[in-house]
Design a protein that fits this description.
0% helix, 17 strands, 223 residues, Jelly Rolls, mainly beta, ConA-like_dom_sf, Laminin_G
Length: 223
């Protein structure tokens, strides 16, 4: 076994002596425990998860689905970029969800604006689906569809070759389709990326870089 246990451990004794959890000699990637826990991955607002080290190729089409819950009105959800301008990005800005795509000719954005600024940032689960099909892009939040016209109809492929960054990205990494640098604080679950007939579920515990992210443990209420 090479990975840590996604669980809470308490009241441990060795030779009848109780270990002091409150003042460890050293600590690494251990968070506090929660009274109630839900499925999902907790992002503490300080970091990100990095997936697909060799680079994810968006190209002409991709369909992204995920569920999120947060009380913050700003935060990066997902970014895949390239060394050039080609990229895609999903983010929450001022309580709106933005889906940006640049196929090389210019950035276009589909924006979902809820009725109230906090209605998506209410701590409840919301379902997001972002679709790029050649030059067309659309965004569905909780069943509400938004799409945008793209003047660059000749440009159809986002030639990305960088990792998928979820919930934020490192300071030295360029993201051409994200306007925010704020790391996401909240929980994400059920991240699927579909290309054609191939659907992939991304497991955050398999990320090659995790900072401030706690896979498979989403606090229902902090304790």
């Amino acid at each position: 076994v090479t990975h840590s246990i996604p669980a809470c451990i308490g009241s441990m004794t060795i030779n009848s002596k109780q270990l002091d959890n409150e003042s460890p000699v050293s600590i690494f990637a251990v968070n506090k425990c929660y009274e109630t826990v839900q499925d999902g991955t907790f992002f503490d607002g300080s970091g990100f998860a990095a997936l697909v080290r060799e680079g994810y190729k968006v190209r002409s089409d991709v369909n992204i689905t995920l569920e999120f819950r947060t009380t913050a009105v700003h935060g990066v959800l997902l970014g895949v970029s390239s060394a050039k301008v080609d990229a895609i990005g999903l983010e929450i800005v001022h309580g709106k969800v933005l889906f940006h795509v640049n196929n090389g000719a210019g950035r276009i954005t589909a924006t979902y604006e809820p009725r109230g600024t906090n209605s998506l940032c209410d701590g409840k689960w919301h379902k997001l689906q972002a679709n790029k099909s050649k030059h067309r892009i659309s965004l569905i939040i909780d069943g509400n569809l938004v799409y945008t016209d793209n003047p660059y109809i000749q440009s159809t492929s986002a030639d990305t070759n960088n990792p998928i960054y979820i919930g934020g990205y490192p300071a030295d990494v360029k993201q051409n389709c994200l306007t925010s640098k704020s790391s996401f604080r909240g929980c994400l679950r059920n991240l699927f990326l579909t290309k054609g007939q191939h659907t992939e579920l991304f497991d955050f515990s398999r990320a090659f870089d995790l900072r401030g992210v706690f896979p498979h443990s989403c606090p229902g209420a902090e304790h």
